[in-house]
Each structure stands twice: as C-alpha cells, then as structure tokens.
Design brief:
The complex is a heterodimer of chains A (about 220) and B (about 475). Chain A has about 220 residues and is mainly alpha-helical. In chain A, about 35% of the residues lie in helices and about 5% in strands. Chain A is built from 7 helices and 2 strands; from the N terminus they run H-H-E-E-H-H-H-H-H. A two-stranded antiparallel sheet of chain A has the order 1-2. The N terminus and C terminus of chain A are likely disordered. Chain B is an alpha/beta fold. Chain B is about 40% helix and about 15% strand. Chain B is built from 15 helices and 17 strands. Chain B has a 7-stranded mixed beta sheet with strand order 4-10-9-8-7-5-6, with helices on both faces. In chain B, strands 13-14-17-16 form a 4-stranded antiparallel beta sheet, with helices on one face. A two-stranded antiparallel sheet of chain B has the order 1-2. In chain B, helix 6 links the parallel strand 5 and strand 6. The longest helix of chain B is centred in the first third of the chain and has 20 residues. Classes of the chains: A mainly alpha (about 220), B alpha/beta (about 475). Chains A and B meet through helix 2 and helix 3 of A and helix 13 of B. Chain B: It comes from Brassica napus (Rape). Chain B: Its EC number is 2.8.1.7. Chain B: InterPro entries: Aminotrans_V_dom, Cys_dSase_SufS, PyrdxlP-dep_Trfase, PyrdxlP-dep_Trfase_major, PyrdxlP-dep_Trfase_small. Chain B: This is cysteine desulfurase.
Chain lengths: ~220, ~475
Amino acid sequence: MNTSSPLKVFASPPLISTPRTTSKAFSTPKFSPKLPKRLRLLVSEFRSLTEPIDRVKRLLNYAMDLAPLDDSARVPENRVPGCTTQVWLDIKMDELGRMRFRADSDSEISKGFCSCLIWILDGAKPEEVMNVRGEDLAEMNVGVHGKAQSRVNTWHNVLMSMQKRTMVLFVDADMAHSGRGRAPPHQHDLLFGYANGRSYMESSEGQHDYSISLLPLYYDFTI
Amino acid sequence: MEGVAMKLPSFKSLAPTAISVASTFSIRRSFSVARRSSSLSATITADSEPVSLGHRARKDFRILHQEVNGSKLVYLDSAATSQKPASVLEALQNYYEFYNSNVHRGIHYLSAKATDEFELARKKVARFINASDSREIVFTRNATEAINLVAYSWGLSNLKPGDEVCAPLVILTVAEHHSCIVPWQIVSQKTGAVLKFVTLNEDEVPDIDMLREMISEKTKLVAVHHVSNVLASSLPIEEIVVWAHDVGAKVLVDACQSVPHMVVDVQKLNADFLVASSHKMCGPTGIGFLYGKSDLLLAMPPFLGGGEMISDVFLDHSTYAEPPSRFEAGTPAIGEAIALGAACDYLSDIGMPKIHEYEVELAKYLYEKLASVPDVRIYGPRPSESVQRAALCSFNVEGLHPTDLATFLDQQHGVAIRSGHHCAQPLHRYLGVNASARASLYFYNTKEDVDSFIVALADTASFFNSFK
C-alpha cells in the first residue's frame, strides 16, 4: 500500500495569475516528469514564436489539421463547459485502455487548441492524460496574457474536460473490472488525488469512493 | 490644439504619446483645474477647428495613453467598465492618504471628516439623478447587488400570492442583463411569482405594445433596462411607469447603461427603484447604488444583517435603522463612495447633456462605419430620426467567431472590444447566436478610435478569410 499521500501527485500549488514578464528570457519550465514528449515538443515550438500573432497563425494552421466531428457527436453531453466559444469533445477508451479524443469548435482558434491537445493526448494512457497540468500549456496561450485564469482560457477548459471525462471512463472500466478483484493501488492513487480530497488510505476499508463531482482542485469553471 | 490653456508653453506638444509621464500628470492637473472654471465649448484652436469632447477629455485618462501588443490602445469596452479620470483617482487616494477612518461611529476628527465626505457623496449621487432626498440613495457593491436587494427585501414580501390566490406577475424583457433576471428567478422559486418576458419586435427592440398588453391587475413589478447593453436601444420608461402604476405595479429600472451617458431624472421618470453601477460612470468598482422612493424603502425589511443597519441589538431580537442605513450593513466602501461622488462632479462639470449629444454623434458614426463593412450583422434597431442608439454596437461577422475576432483585434491592433454573451444569454438565444462581439464607446473616445477599429476589423476579417 502506498503510504505517502497520493494527493502529493496532484498537490501542485494553485494556479495563480502571474504577470507575464516582458523579458524574453524565460526560465526553463518545470515539467511533470511523466509529461508526454509531444507536449514538450509543442511547447518548444510555441515558445520559439515570440510574436503573439505568429502563435495565432500557427494555431490556425493546426486548426486545419483537425478532423471534422460528425453531427452525432455535437451533443450537449459533449460540450466543454466554461468556454465562451462552443467546443465539443468526444472521448472514448479503446480496447487497450488508451484514451481516444475527437473535438470541434465554432472558433478557429479554439479548434487550433483542440488540435494541439489531441495531437498530444490522443492514444495516451489515462494517467498520462491526468498528469498534464494547466500551467504546462501556459506557454502556448494566445490571447490570454500571462497565466491568467479566465473564462476565455479554452486550453484549461478543454484540458479539464478531457481529464474529468477520462477519469469517469477509467472509473467505469475499473468498476467493471473489479468484479474480478480490486484494481492495483497505483490506479486508485490516480483517482483519489482528484476525488473529494479523500485519500486511498481513508477509503481503504474495501469501499471504493468514486466521488468525482469535485474537479481537480484549483480550477474554476464559473462564468 | 494650439491656443488652449495659453499659460502652458509646452501645451503644443501635448500629443499624448509624445509626452513624458511626469509632465503629463502636472499638465493634466492644471488643465483639469482650468477646465472647471471655463466652459468646454469655448475651446477653439487657432485653426478654428473645434476640438471634440473626446479629444479634450482623453487627457484626463492616463490609462488611455499606452500601447498594447505594440499598437496604440483603442479602448472600446466602456459598457463593460469605464475608465477613471485623474480627479476620481485623486479623490480615492486623498481619502486613504488624509482622512481614512470608519464612518458613522467615531467621534474623532478623521471619522467626522470621513463621515461628512461619505454623506456628501450620497448627496452628490442624489443630485446627479435628481432624487428628492439623499436618503433615497442606498449604497451597494454594484447594480447587481442593488437589484438583489430589491428582490430579497421588497420581492420576497411583496411577490407572494394574495387573497385572490393568483400568482403575482413580474414582467421582464428577453434583453435583460442576467442581474435583472436571475434574482427574480430565485424569488419566483421561493414565492411562486410568475415571470413573463417581453420579446423583440421586427426592429429588434423590446415590443412595447406587447409590454403594455402584458401589464394586468396581477402585475406587481416591471423590471426593465433603460438602455440595452447589447441592442443599444432605449425603453420609454416614463410611459412604462404610467402603465404600471395604473395597475398598482412597481417599476425597477436598470439604468447601468443610461446614467453614465445621459441625463437621468428619477423624479421625471417616476420610477420606484433605479439601479446603477459606479464603475460604468467613471467611478471605481466596488460601489453602486439603489434609488428607491422613500415610502417604499421605509416599508422594506433589511437585506443583509450586521452593524450600521441596526438601531438596538439584543440577544433575541434587534431593531433596525431607518433607510438608507437599514440596507447598508457593515463598513461601506467609503473611499469608493467618495470617489463616486468625485465622478459625479467630473461628469457634471462637463455636463450630461453635452456628453449625451457627443455620444449620439459617435453612435451614428460607429453604426454607419460598421454597417459598411461587408458580412457584418449589427443587432438592435437602425438609427433614424425617431430612434437614437447608444454608442455601442453588438455585431457578428459572417464565418468569424467573435472570440477569434476580439483576440486578433487585441493581439494585432491593440483594439479592446468584448466578445461573448455580455451577460445576456437569453437575448443571444432569442437572436439565434451563441455569442457576439461588442464595441462600446464613452465620451473619451473619438472618431479616430472608430476609424482605427474599422480598419482593424477589416484586416481581421481578411486574415481569417485567408485561412479558409
């Protein structure tokens, strides 16, 4: 049993809005060690685009790469909450337990965000999806200065939606699986770090607590 | 701009971007003092080209003289919040620097001075809207809180079914701001009151005939905007009040977009309640006000409980103060109220009729220019002889999401507009759109600002078209 608090995995400091420095000398970002390689590549690419307008153009290019989403997937359940644009996110777990994402938006810039996120995370394992933090994406931010949390911050909203729904699918799969025995502890570490602040230790009496109505701790969806 | 304030030899170089920060500040101080003592309309250049109100007023707003993303800032989001002139900032600074003290309680000098200035600010607000008594002004955090005050305090006791066992009716329009919809929904859930919404007519303004027909004996309240923050239209409040009073209903006016821009006379309107926000009228955030007729306020139970609003407190009950104190629990936003008073002074010095006249002209210019851009759809009525629009336009560009538009305008051109639903989701749903862009002007904007916006808009549309 994991005696260290599983919450530590996700106990990053709350995302506080910090003023963007005017200096071009960015400090090396501290990535989570489990971060997908593609994310590092994308962040490097965007960091090299120092003019905001070039980032917009790059995002619009990526938007063109996004596969169209059928109308059948443009349903209210797939809407990403909190965005001022409309974003639909379709998510499945494949037979290997990896996450598959498709998305679309009525805004070209949001499409670009979705295209990037999908390129990074499509086919990833659930814990890889959960390990991406909002601040890891901050360098790619366009139109929202610094690392401000604001309702127009589509990156955060889409990522949060991806993570929340990944967790739901993971839990469903786990519960379906648990008829044949309890899932390994490290998978629950993943869950309980997000679930209502309860640790695996507290709910280890044989009850699985899947309280997932509370989202990862420091994100605010209010409009 | 030669010839203005001749005492200042360096005035010629007053192009805002050319001047250093320190000298701008000192010149602006002298200029605003000089301005108070002379009529603005007397300002004429040596070239006999009258300088517009926008050009003259801009100098009082340091925040407007900056670059964003490498371009000159063009601030077109005053309907969301207005900028504050130096005199308002000075008033706030002065308060904290020289006489900050809690009000209404202390006996010492600073407290007495703070109290005097706070109550003077209340009088200034009362005078600004021509309320007959400053006790009819209740300071709140903002207009939203003011509407909630009426909803919880007046609404909960007056919107219950009476002996007739028929649900009382509250009339709203689909164009209301969320702050004038949600509180009534909350009240209606508690009291069973029914909400009915007036829809728009073919001119894209709330249908006044429909409103008139909706008003019946069951109507207890009509809560409507004075000027719409999306449609730029205005409602004939005086007539609405007459119809409402005929059936014994009260009228609440959301004047957030009217008080800052035109003369609003509550006695002439005869509205029962009126709300406005300081931050939209050159005042600071954190303060707004409710105007309520004395007899109504006197009959209303408290909203928030605490200090200031009580008369005597015992363990098992308390007695309450008279209005407005009854509705001002806790330490108020003292400095902010005083700064709001300074904002009222600043606007009155210019003259609300003059501000309105200038904005009517700007509104026409904005509409004409925007309407001439291809694929643009502007919401609200077309301006005409009989229809005056406020100086704002909510619009959409075909095939371009307003958020993408606003992002590009900001990043590439330094133009600040708003995109989204502008706290009017029901209206956007009614119009069949998810979101719109909005450019909103105030008296410190100029026609050049509009021109910059239009050029930037055309550039944005062609940029996004090139990606299709």
